[in-house]
Design a protein that fits this description.
It is built from twelve helices and 18 strands. By secondary structure, the protein is an alpha/beta fold. It has a single domain, classed as FAD/NAD(P)-binding domain, CATH 3.50.50. It has an eight-stranded mixed sheet. Strands 7-2-1-11-18 form a five-stranded parallel sheet, with helices on both faces. A three-stranded antiparallel sheet has the order 8-9-10. The protein is globular. The two termini are 14 Å apart.
Length: 400
């Protein structure tokens, strides 16, 4: 689209996907406004894995220097058995990632990434981010799209982008498929200071603990000053009305009661353990209608078993901006966006579910079966088959 005809874009949601979309659009000369329901931008302290496909986008947006100042660079991925602690190295994340996929593998403290994105958006166009704007209603016709907020105000533009997460108001109003459904898995999340850990646990690697009915992932963040902890446990139901809440160290210890002593040494050092309900939806076959589209968890919430949730939001935001810039009108752009993204995103949702079954397999109850299972499932060939297609994706160059 030419600069004189570029439409005004309203982004509903100031999370990672919404801010990436806003920055990608601003850099292409689009007028953008972001509306976030929270009164201040912030995230519960947790980590994120930024694989090569993600960093390729963030670097294209000019954020490499800012990222390199705050991230960790895990040297590799290690797998450990839940009860014995027996370990295998199965992934080099250093030079191999750069050489094979053209970008490094980072791990980052989520609030640090949010701060980088928000600062870049505000630097590109001061006043873009509007806080305390909880969406009440979305509407559109042939000429305009409109957001109404619970504070009585409204905003009009040429396109609304629903980046309002797994509990998306916009998805609910446009596609009417109800609330997200509890997946049968809950996650414990927390961070700890690396220098408070026993020396043997101060690792600059990403570690995956696998076991029957549960798994744990740890990795360094914020220049290796912190260690991020995620423990996922199969639970029959989620009784709390909140999808995230503070939990206790005692309950967390209990959920991993028979696991290796190193796990409990880690749990002891978590500053504040939070419990999260992992929720999902059936994949959509279209994300766009008229002057409204979706991105990120609003259209493809995924279990975190491929570490691609943030990556998909970032890819979505960048590809959407490309489509709007390269196509002749909004209708053609949204058709190209859906066509470029839906198959990949829905495949990631299903492959993450497959990984959950792999991480939680009951074969790991028996030591002999467990070793055979690990050697088979985490062989070089199988790991390459599961991850290469993810990391080699290039949002800058895919056909639209």
């Amino acid at each position: 689209m030419t600069s004189t005809t570029k439409p005004k874009i309203l982004v509903a949601g100031g999370g990672i996907g919404g801010l990436t979309a806003a920055l990608s659009l601003l850099k292409r000369g689009f007028p953008v406004q972001v509306y976030e329901q929270a009164k201040q931008l912030g995230e519960v302290g947790a980590g994120l894995q930024l694989s090569a496909n993600t960093n390729r986008v963030l670097f294209a947006l000019g954020l490499r220097t800012q990222l390199e100042a705050v991230v960790s660079r895990p040297s590799g991925k290690q797998l450990r058995l839940w009860d014995s602690g027996e370990s295998w190295d199965y992934f080099d994340l250093g030079t191999v990632s750069e050489h094979k996929f053209g970008a490094p593998y980072f791990t980052v403290y989520r609030p640090d990434l949010m701060n980088i994105l928000a600062s870049a958006v505000e630097a590109a166009s001061p006043g873009t981010i509007n806080l305390g704007k909880r969406i009440k209603n979305v509407s559109h016709d042939a000429d305009v799209a409109q957001l109404e907020f619970e504070d009585g105000t409204s905003a009009s533009g040429d396109l609304v982008v629903g980046a309002d997460g797994v509990h998306s108001v916009i998805r609910s109003q446009i596609f009417g498929d109800g609330e997200p459904v509890y997946s049968g898995n809950m996650a414990w999340r927390g961070v700890m200071r690396m220098d408070q850990l026993p020396a043997k646990l101060q690792q600059a690697t990403s570690v995956l603990w696998v076991g029957p009915g549960a798994h744990i992932v740890t990795y360094p963040i914020r220049r290796n000053e912190l260690l991020n902890f995620v423990g996922v446990v199969e639970k029959a139901e989620w009784t709390s009305e909140s999808w995230s809440q503070q939990g206790s160290h005692e309950e967390l210890h209990e959920d991993f009661s028979k696991w290796h002593s190193h796990v409990h040494a880690l749990i002891d050092q978590i500053e504040t353990p939070f419990k999260w309900s992992l929720r999902g939806r059936k994949p959509l076959q279209r994300w766009s209608t008229g002057r409204i589209t979706l991105l990120g968890d609003a259209c493809h919430p995924t279990l975190p078993f491929l570490a691609q949730g943030a990556a998909m939001s970032i890819e979505d935001g960048y590809v959407l901006a490309r489509a709007l810039d390269e196509k002749s009108d909004i209708g053609a752009a949204l058709q190209a966006y859906d066509g470029a993204r839906i198959e990949r995103a829905n495949k990631i949702v299903s492959k993450a579910e497959e990984n959950g079954k792999r991480f939680h397999n009951d074969e790991m109850l028996d030591p002999t079966k467990a070793r055979a299972f690990v050697n088979r499932e985490w062989s070089e060939e199988n790991v390459s088959q599961r991850y290469d297609w993810l990391y080699s994706y290039d949002a800058e160059r895919i056909a639209l």
